[in-house]
Amino acid sequence: METDKPHCLVIGVGVGTGLACVRRFIEGGYRVSMVARHRERLQSFADSVDGSVPYAADIADLDAFRSTLKRVVDDLGPPQVVIYNAALATFSSYEDLDPTDLERNFRVNTSGLLVTAQELAPAMVNRGDGAIVVTGNTGSLRGKPDFIGFAPTKASQRILAESLARDLGPKGVHVAYVVIDAVIDMPFARRRRPERPDDFFASPDDIAGEVFHTAHQPRSTRSFLVELRPFGEVW
Question: Has this prediction a pTM greater than 0.90?
Answer without folding.
Answer: yes
